[in-house]
Write a structure and sequence with these properties.
The chain is of the alpha/beta class. It has one domain (11-252): Rossmann fold (3-Layer(aba) Sandwich), CATH 3.40.50. Helix content is 29%, strand content 29%. Helix 2 packs parallel to helix 5 (195-205) and helix 3 packs across helix 6 (235-252).
Length: 256
Protein backbone atom coordinates (compact mmCIF):
# COMPACT_ATOMS: atom_id res chain seq x y z
CA UNK A 1 0.00 0.00 0.00
CA UNK A 2 1.37 3.42 -0.96
CA UNK A 3 1.96 6.02 1.73
CA UNK A 4 2.38 8.86 -0.78
CA UNK A 5 0.42 11.67 0.86
CA UNK A 6 1.60 15.21 0.34
CA UNK A 7 1.61 18.22 2.65
CA UNK A 8 -1.40 20.59 2.43
CA UNK A 9 0.67 23.18 0.54
CA UNK A 10 1.75 20.78 -2.21
CA UNK A 11 0.31 21.77 -5.59
CA UNK A 12 -1.23 18.98 -7.62
CA UNK A 13 -0.06 19.85 -11.16
CA UNK A 14 -2.69 18.05 -13.22
CA UNK A 15 -5.90 18.73 -11.33
CA UNK A 16 -4.54 22.19 -10.50
CA UNK A 17 -5.21 22.46 -6.79
CA UNK A 18 -3.34 22.48 -3.48
CA UNK A 19 -3.53 19.17 -1.65
CA UNK A 20 -5.01 20.81 1.44
CA UNK A 21 -7.93 22.22 -0.54
CA UNK A 22 -9.18 18.79 -1.66
CA UNK A 23 -12.14 17.58 0.46
CA UNK A 24 -11.72 14.16 2.06
CA UNK A 25 -15.00 12.99 0.52
CA UNK A 26 -15.02 13.21 -3.30
CA UNK A 27 -17.38 12.37 -6.14
CA UNK A 28 -15.67 11.81 -9.48
CA UNK A 29 -17.52 12.15 -12.79
CA UNK A 30 -16.43 12.07 -16.41
CA UNK A 31 -18.02 15.23 -17.79
CA UNK A 32 -17.26 18.76 -16.47
CA UNK A 33 -20.90 19.61 -17.18
CA UNK A 34 -21.87 16.90 -14.71
CA UNK A 35 -19.74 18.64 -12.08
CA UNK A 36 -21.99 21.69 -12.52
CA UNK A 37 -25.04 19.47 -12.15
CA UNK A 38 -23.69 18.04 -8.88
CA UNK A 39 -22.91 21.57 -7.67
CA UNK A 40 -26.60 22.48 -7.97
CA UNK A 41 -27.30 19.91 -5.23
CA UNK A 42 -24.68 21.34 -2.86
CA UNK A 43 -24.89 24.22 -0.41
CA UNK A 44 -22.25 26.95 -0.56
CA UNK A 45 -20.75 25.50 -3.74
CA UNK A 46 -17.48 27.09 -4.82
CA UNK A 47 -15.18 26.37 -7.74
CA UNK A 48 -11.72 25.37 -6.53
CA UNK A 49 -9.88 24.73 -9.78
CA UNK A 50 -10.28 24.08 -13.51
CA UNK A 51 -7.30 22.71 -15.43
CA UNK A 52 -7.72 20.79 -18.69
CA UNK A 53 -10.72 18.48 -18.25
CA UNK A 54 -10.42 18.53 -14.46
CA UNK A 55 -13.02 20.86 -12.91
CA UNK A 56 -13.23 20.80 -9.11
CA UNK A 57 -16.07 22.21 -7.01
CA UNK A 58 -16.59 21.88 -3.26
CA UNK A 59 -19.64 22.45 -1.08
CA UNK A 60 -21.81 20.95 1.63
CA UNK A 61 -24.24 18.05 1.44
CA UNK A 62 -26.08 16.64 4.47
CA UNK A 63 -23.89 18.83 6.64
CA UNK A 64 -20.68 17.28 5.28
CA UNK A 65 -17.90 19.01 3.33
CA UNK A 66 -17.64 17.27 -0.06
CA UNK A 67 -16.11 17.83 -3.45
CA UNK A 68 -16.68 16.77 -7.04
CA UNK A 69 -14.17 16.64 -9.90
CA UNK A 70 -14.38 15.65 -13.56
CA UNK A 71 -11.85 13.11 -14.83
CA UNK A 72 -12.57 12.95 -18.56
CA UNK A 73 -12.96 9.85 -20.71
CA UNK A 74 -10.78 6.77 -20.33
CA UNK A 75 -8.57 5.18 -17.73
CA UNK A 76 -5.25 6.92 -18.37
CA UNK A 77 -6.36 10.50 -17.76
CA UNK A 78 -8.80 9.45 -15.07
CA UNK A 79 -6.12 7.59 -13.13
CA UNK A 80 -4.00 10.75 -13.01
CA UNK A 81 -6.97 12.44 -11.35
CA UNK A 82 -7.55 9.57 -8.90
CA UNK A 83 -3.85 9.47 -7.99
CA UNK A 84 -3.67 13.18 -7.23
CA UNK A 85 -6.84 13.00 -5.14
CA UNK A 86 -5.34 10.18 -3.09
CA UNK A 87 -2.05 12.03 -2.71
CA UNK A 88 -4.03 15.04 -1.50
CA UNK A 89 -5.58 13.06 1.35
CA UNK A 90 -8.98 12.06 -0.05
CA UNK A 91 -10.41 9.29 2.14
CA UNK A 92 -13.48 8.30 0.14
CA UNK A 93 -14.01 8.48 -3.63
CA UNK A 94 -17.23 7.51 -5.41
CA UNK A 95 -17.57 7.51 -9.18
CA UNK A 96 -20.93 8.57 -10.60
CA UNK A 97 -20.95 7.77 -14.27
CA UNK A 98 -22.83 6.35 -17.22
CA UNK A 99 -22.49 2.85 -18.62
CA UNK A 100 -23.95 0.50 -21.17
CA UNK A 101 -26.02 -2.41 -19.93
CA UNK A 102 -24.64 -5.88 -20.60
CA UNK A 103 -27.45 -8.19 -19.49
CA UNK A 104 -30.75 -8.23 -21.41
CA UNK A 105 -32.68 -6.75 -18.48
CA UNK A 106 -30.16 -3.96 -17.72
CA UNK A 107 -31.58 -1.21 -19.91
CA UNK A 108 -31.50 2.57 -20.00
CA UNK A 109 -32.98 3.95 -16.79
CA UNK A 110 -31.37 1.33 -14.54
CA UNK A 111 -28.71 1.96 -11.89
CA UNK A 112 -25.79 -0.39 -11.29
CA UNK A 113 -23.71 -0.44 -8.10
CA UNK A 114 -20.27 -1.81 -8.97
CA UNK A 115 -18.95 -4.39 -6.54
CA UNK A 116 -15.87 -5.10 -8.67
CA UNK A 117 -14.56 -4.46 -12.17
CA UNK A 118 -12.97 -6.43 -14.98
CA UNK A 119 -9.61 -4.77 -15.67
CA UNK A 120 -9.82 -4.54 -19.48
CA UNK A 121 -8.13 -1.13 -19.65
CA UNK A 122 -4.48 -0.33 -20.24
CA UNK A 123 -3.52 1.64 -17.15
CA UNK A 124 -4.03 -0.41 -14.00
CA UNK A 125 -1.91 -3.28 -15.33
CA UNK A 126 1.04 -0.87 -15.24
CA UNK A 127 0.44 -0.43 -11.49
CA UNK A 128 -0.17 -3.98 -10.27
CA UNK A 129 -0.46 -7.37 -12.03
CA UNK A 130 -3.79 -8.31 -13.59
CA UNK A 131 -4.16 -11.03 -10.96
CA UNK A 132 -4.79 -8.27 -8.39
CA UNK A 133 -8.59 -7.75 -8.17
CA UNK A 134 -10.32 -4.41 -8.68
CA UNK A 135 -12.90 -4.39 -5.87
CA UNK A 136 -15.12 -1.72 -4.34
CA UNK A 137 -14.86 -1.02 -0.63
CA UNK A 138 -17.57 -3.04 1.08
CA UNK A 139 -18.63 -0.10 3.24
CA UNK A 140 -19.20 2.01 0.13
CA UNK A 141 -21.24 -0.75 -1.51
CA UNK A 142 -23.44 -0.93 1.60
CA UNK A 143 -23.80 2.86 1.68
CA UNK A 144 -24.78 2.97 -2.00
CA UNK A 145 -27.25 0.14 -1.42
CA UNK A 146 -28.85 1.95 1.51
CA UNK A 147 -28.95 5.26 -0.36
CA UNK A 148 -30.62 3.66 -3.37
CA UNK A 149 -33.39 2.05 -1.31
CA UNK A 150 -35.66 5.11 -1.50
CA UNK A 151 -35.31 5.23 -5.28
CA UNK A 152 -36.32 1.62 -5.73
CA UNK A 153 -39.20 2.06 -3.27
CA UNK A 154 -40.57 5.20 -4.92
CA UNK A 155 -40.28 4.08 -8.55
CA UNK A 156 -39.88 1.04 -10.72
CA UNK A 157 -36.26 1.90 -11.43
CA UNK A 158 -34.09 -1.23 -11.62
CA UNK A 159 -31.11 -1.18 -9.24
CA UNK A 160 -28.53 -3.96 -9.61
CA UNK A 161 -25.25 -4.81 -7.87
CA UNK A 162 -22.40 -6.74 -9.39
CA UNK A 163 -19.31 -6.84 -11.58
CA UNK A 164 -18.81 -4.25 -14.32
CA UNK A 165 -16.41 -4.18 -17.25
CA UNK A 166 -13.91 -1.32 -17.59
CA UNK A 167 -12.72 -1.24 -21.19
CA UNK A 168 -10.69 1.17 -23.32
CA UNK A 169 -12.68 0.19 -26.41
CA UNK A 170 -15.69 2.39 -27.12
CA UNK A 171 -16.21 2.12 -30.90
CA UNK A 172 -15.30 -1.40 -32.13
CA UNK A 173 -14.13 -2.02 -35.69
CA UNK A 174 -14.47 -5.00 -38.01
CA UNK A 175 -10.80 -5.98 -37.84
CA UNK A 176 -10.94 -7.33 -34.28
CA UNK A 177 -14.56 -6.72 -33.31
CA UNK A 178 -15.53 -6.60 -29.64
CA UNK A 179 -15.72 -9.05 -26.77
CA UNK A 180 -18.88 -7.87 -25.01
CA UNK A 181 -20.80 -11.14 -25.64
CA UNK A 182 -18.07 -13.03 -23.76
CA UNK A 183 -18.43 -10.79 -20.72
CA UNK A 184 -22.21 -10.97 -20.92
CA UNK A 185 -21.98 -14.75 -20.67
CA UNK A 186 -19.78 -14.31 -17.59
CA UNK A 187 -22.54 -12.31 -15.89
CA UNK A 188 -21.04 -8.82 -16.15
CA UNK A 189 -23.76 -6.22 -15.65
CA UNK A 190 -22.45 -3.11 -17.43
CA UNK A 191 -19.55 -1.68 -19.42
CA UNK A 192 -17.78 1.64 -18.83
CA UNK A 193 -14.19 2.93 -18.92
CA UNK A 194 -12.79 4.04 -15.54
CA UNK A 195 -14.05 2.07 -12.53
CA UNK A 196 -11.28 -0.53 -12.47
CA UNK A 197 -8.53 2.08 -12.44
CA UNK A 198 -10.30 3.91 -9.62
CA UNK A 199 -10.57 0.75 -7.52
CA UNK A 200 -6.90 -0.15 -8.09
CA UNK A 201 -5.57 3.35 -7.39
CA UNK A 202 -7.69 3.67 -4.25
CA UNK A 203 -6.60 0.24 -3.01
CA UNK A 204 -2.94 1.16 -3.41
CA UNK A 205 -3.50 4.19 -1.19
CA UNK A 206 -5.85 2.60 1.35
CA UNK A 207 -8.69 4.86 0.22
CA UNK A 208 -12.34 3.76 0.22
CA UNK A 209 -13.87 3.72 -3.27
CA UNK A 210 -17.08 2.76 -5.00
CA UNK A 211 -19.16 3.49 -8.07
CA UNK A 212 -22.77 3.88 -9.13
CA UNK A 213 -23.57 3.91 -12.83
CA UNK A 214 -26.54 5.24 -14.77
CA UNK A 215 -27.35 2.94 -17.70
CA UNK A 216 -27.75 4.88 -20.96
CA UNK A 217 -28.36 1.98 -23.34
CA UNK A 218 -27.47 -1.64 -24.01
CA UNK A 219 -25.06 -2.36 -26.90
CA UNK A 220 -25.98 -6.06 -26.86
CA UNK A 221 -29.72 -5.51 -27.34
CA UNK A 222 -30.73 -5.33 -30.98
CA UNK A 223 -28.34 -4.93 -33.89
CA UNK A 224 -26.56 -1.70 -32.92
CA UNK A 225 -23.26 -3.25 -31.85
CA UNK A 226 -21.28 -0.49 -33.62
CA UNK A 227 -22.94 2.22 -31.46
CA UNK A 228 -24.07 4.18 -34.55
CA UNK A 229 -27.56 4.85 -33.15
CA UNK A 230 -26.57 5.33 -29.52
CA UNK A 231 -28.04 8.53 -28.03
CA UNK A 232 -27.13 9.47 -24.44
CA UNK A 233 -28.97 12.80 -24.65
CA UNK A 234 -32.44 11.52 -23.81
CA UNK A 235 -34.60 12.44 -20.84
CA UNK A 236 -34.51 8.92 -19.42
CA UNK A 237 -30.72 9.13 -19.26
CA UNK A 238 -30.71 12.60 -17.71
CA UNK A 239 -33.21 11.49 -15.06
CA UNK A 240 -31.15 8.40 -14.28
CA UNK A 241 -27.95 10.45 -13.97
CA UNK A 242 -29.77 12.75 -11.52
CA UNK A 243 -30.78 9.71 -9.47
CA UNK A 244 -27.21 8.37 -9.53
CA UNK A 245 -25.86 11.72 -8.32
CA UNK A 246 -28.34 11.80 -5.45
CA UNK A 247 -27.44 8.24 -4.45
CA UNK A 248 -23.73 8.96 -4.75
CA UNK A 249 -23.88 12.11 -2.60
CA UNK A 250 -26.01 10.37 0.04
CA UNK A 251 -23.59 7.45 0.23
CA UNK A 252 -20.58 9.77 0.26
CA UNK A 253 -21.86 11.55 3.36
CA UNK A 254 -23.09 8.45 5.21
CA UNK A 255 -21.29 6.93 8.16
CA UNK A 256 -19.40 3.94 6.77
Amino acid sequence: MSSTKHSPDTFMPIIGIKAGDVPQRMLVVGDPKRVRKVAEMLEDAIELAHNREYLTIAGTFNGQHVGVISHGVGSAGATVCFEELCRSGAECIIRVGTAGGMQPHVLDGALVIATAAVRDEGTSSRLVPLSFPACASIGIVWALRDASTSFSADSDRLIEEGVVLSSDLFYPHDVLGGDLPQWQRAGVLAVEMEVSSLFITAALHGVDAGAILAIDGNPLNGEDSDMSNWDPHRKVVADTVDAAIAVGLTALTADQ
